[in-house]
Every structure is written in structure tokens, then in C-alpha cells.
Description:
Order of helices and strands: EEEHEHEHE
Number of domains: 1
InterPro entries: AKR, NAD(P)_OxRdtase_dom_sf, NADP_OxRdtase_dom
Family: Belongs to the aldo/keto reductase family.
Mean pLDDT: 92
GO molecular function, one term: oxidoreductase activity, acting on the CH-OH group of donors, NAD or NADP as acceptor
Pfam families: Aldo_ket_red
Number of helices: 3
CATH superfamily: NADP-dependent oxidoreductase domain
Low-confidence stretches: none
Organism: Adineta steineri
CATH topology: TIM Barrel
Amino acid sequence: MSLTLKSRITLNDGHSMPIFGLGLYQAESSSKTIQIITDAIKLGYPLIDTAEIYKNESQFGEAVKKGIKREEIFLTTKLFTTQSGCEGCQKSFKNSLEQLATDYVDLYLLHAPQGQ
């Protein structure tokens, strides 16, 4: 099996997700990041990975506003562990949706979970 940017993995429930994507860790919150996202999608990157704590979710939102088709992107973001409990999680999730300029994400992860 040869891997390409379009390669996907099928999950147990039959849905699939891309194997490759662009991670936005340490991507600054700027117009440069918007251009990076736009260019990556034009080059065929099917997945964008960001997180609330990266402070760059709004750059994805701006890329969508500039014409990126949201439905063509597998979008991942993360809840940081300082947001505890159901209310904190819901608040963070709603804020992420607002910043990302979307009404859904494809994968929502707990970022850096730590046991007690």
C-alpha cells in the first residue's frame, strides 16, 4: 500500500479519517498562518489539527471565510486540561467553534491529559 496525502484509515464504525494533515502547533496567530492553511489545503492536505491553547483557531476560521470549503477538511481541535468539568468543556467547545468559524469539528480531543 502506498501512502499519499489522500490516504485514509477506516475506523471500526466504518467512518474514515485522513492519515496525514497539517498541525498548527507553534504557528503564530497571524495572516501568515492563514496563508499557510490556505496553501496546505490547495496542496491537498486533507486534515488540519489545532488546539484552543495554540491560540490560532481563528486563523482556520479566516481561511474558511476566504473561500476554503469547510466540508472538504477533516478538522481536529483540542480541549486543554485547565477546562475541567462538563460546563468548562462545553464553554471551551463553543468558543472553539466560534474561533474556527464552523458549527462542527470532526475530532475533539483532550489535550495532554494528566492523571492524579
